[in-house]
Design goal:
With 874 residues, the protein is α/β, with parallel strands linked by helices. It is built from 35 helices and 33 strands. The strands form seven sheets. Strands 14-24-23-16-17-18-19-15 form an eight-stranded mixed beta sheet. It has an eight-stranded parallel barrel with strand order 26-27-28-29-30-31-32-33, surrounded by four helices. It is elongated, with a radius of gyration of 33 Å.
Amino acid sequence: MKKFVHGFSEGNMGMKALLGGKGANLAEMTRIGLPVPPGFTVTTEACNEYYQHDSQLWQNVKDEIFQHLVKLEEATGKQFGNASNPLLVSVRSGAVFSMPGMMDTILNLGLNDESVIGLAKATNNERFAYDSYRRFIQMFGDVVLDVKKYKFDTILEKRKIEKNLELDVDLTPEDLKYLVEEFKKIIAREAGIQFPQDVKKQLLMAVEAVFKSWNNPRAKVYRKIHDIPEHLGTAVNVQSMVFGNMGETSGTGVAFTRNPSNGEKKLFGEFLLNAQGEDVVAGIRTPQPIEALRERMPEAYQRFINVTHLLENHYKDMQDIEFTIERGELYILQTRNGKRTTLAAINIAVEMVSEGLISQKEAIMRVEPQQLDQLLHPTFDKEELQRAEVITTGLPASSGAASGKIYFTPEDAVKASNSRERVILVRHETSPEDIEGMVASVGILTARGGMTSHAAVVARGMGKCCVAGAGELKIDEAAKTVRVREMLLKEGDYISLNGNTGEVYAGEIKTQDPQLSGNFEVFMNWADQYRKLRVRTNADTPRDTKQAKEFGAEGIGLCRTEHMFFEETRIPVVRRMILARNLGQRKKALEQLLPMQRKDFIDIFEVMGALPVTIRLLDPPLHEFLPHEEEDIIALAETMEITYHELKDIVNDLHEFNPMLGHRGCRLAVTYPEIYQMQVQAIMEAAVHMKEVKGVTVKPEIMVPLVGAFKELKYIKDIIVQTIEEVISEAGIQIEYMIGTMIEVPRAAITADEIATEAAFFSFGTNDLTQMTYGFSRDDAGSFIKEYLDKVLLEKDPFQRIDRNGVGKLMKLAVELGRKTKPDIKLGICGEHGGEPSSIEFCHLLNLDYVSCSPFRVPIARLAAAQAALRHPQ
Ligand code: ADP
Ligand code: MG
Ligand code: MG
């Protein structure tokens, strides 16, 4: 027969799935001989079985519980419900993964009108006994019977006022007896049942309440979001009580074996004298630092120190330990791996390797890749942050913290930044024309747009803090104001942004710059030894390229050429090219652009040296380069020697209902091959320059965007190759190159075998691929994806984490078809997913050659790739 209850002495730390995290660790500590108050665990299987039994405890499990209760009585020499020496227990929930929403611990269970007399006798402390009893009724009422806490507090406060008392501890035994009676009345009135005097009934009701809490709505939502399966269930721990509130030689506390904020190898903790569990967290009294225990109770302190060493060596990780001292006697009530900051996580992992406690591989698994972000960006001053007021929340689009004065146009932002202001650029949404304003700002806030909106992508690329899609903002660009509910902010007012949470604060908050410790370097080098994926970066400027290289990028996976076109000196030439009335005019404009582009590529090649660089030919629709506001069109018409009406006609002609699916990518080159010809010429001449002048061999990877059909690629490739040959024969030296394509249109993935005949490499453009596979517009999805997440129709924004079942299937198909045609085809990813750990794991599973991500995500990608390789050895 299946066993649903295990004594603490029957389990171990390997049994988390059955006993829950807390139960398995209590068993493990019992097993290795630590002073753990005895008890037993009702298993997670019992929880599942409970739901199979129409949410009723069935006879067998009740019998088992009572059998273990008898054992507990034997072990403690006390009896449950006894009028002279009663056994009291705590009832503690404990799932496999700790999660909010589960039931709070109940202490002192087993007290009733009789056993309270026994407790008073046994401890020779009537006050203590009745205080424990009234606390228990209150807790039982709140946690098991759902009676509002404040109803009890009100009565207690009333009594204190009547008797003119200041503190709870001033209450006499008579006051407490009075409260016990009143509390029982509250329960009868509010819950409609008498407070149970039968202690076995108390216990079963508490166990049931824990099982029920597994399915409360908060816990359910939490599980969905964190991918915790529904079938796990929670365990219940029933443990004999020890008392930290038995006078001045008793107390309770919590300690970390190392400092959780910086990792320093020094005990870090707090304790409260003469107190019980909930008092420490309740914050009613201020706890003392753990060192103070050394003077108060040197022996118990020394024993505790020994336990901390033992536990850390045993678990080989920093522990978070809960303990209680009853009349000088130490008891350990919980241990678990402690939560820590990234800085602490890295320092602890590296130091534990040098202490011989863990291996390098284990160390690599100890740090969440996403957490590294914390180290690379500014953070808020903690104290100032506590005083700050959140005025609204948007999407956490790009990490970091920023504080500055608000400006509403890129021009104003640039001006303010030139006069040394720290600027926060506030926009409905950003577009390529805003780049200079974004460069001039320390943070960007938008009212619209999602996680892959222009603002989000560009800010991440620059490593700048960005909160996007803060829908409550009512921006009036003309008046230079923004309204957030009742609050009106004007140009020059201070706000602060938290790019990690999406929170927006009123006023200024001090920020701190990131510092990278020596251990960071050591740690990242270990990660590099184990990963199979290469890590490249998405970078369009020498500055970003340099940044990425410092973070360890091994090449460029996506160099977008259009960003180069928006610079102030170039945009007029670009516009002349677009407005050209014939091929001759267009070629003339392109001739002017050629040396500029060549210089761009030389600058980037110089930073990257011999590392590979993938350059994407022009991608966006041409209308993005033209003005749309009436006054700007008038101004441009004047400088371009064209009439307003002619220009307006062209702007209208280029207007598209759905530009994302319009005349862009390689479709532009089908119409205007001369644009790509110019770009390819610039790339190849830059490569020639590198070889002749710098003696550096670069092998450009030329990437054609938005290909959907093999014939499309073939047509463009022929043009590219012809241009390349002209440059090479002109220069008289050989330059190697590669021509490949993005896989971002679903049709390209489906026909990848055909496309591979013309492509030397594939780079998955998963932003567009997700957009076109899901049919979610990248620019508009922000407004409803949140709804989908709240209703758990999506577990994760598919623009953030690759949707393995849908988009991922297309990728897998493309990989297989591509390799069938060309076994050595080079495969990478350059969408935003290239910097997201779960997506990187997926790329590892597909056996891609590299991932490419924005510069500040390069360290994250390096670590995520290493973890994927360790988790899935090939
Ligand atoms: P949480 O999961 O919220 O930490 P716990 O089950 O660890 O809840 O209980 C909270 C606190 O209650 C413990 O830290 C401890 O101080 C106290 N407590 C729990 N069980 C006992 C017990 N058997 N004896 C004394 N105190 C206990
Ligand atoms: Mg605890
Ligand atoms: Mg694309």
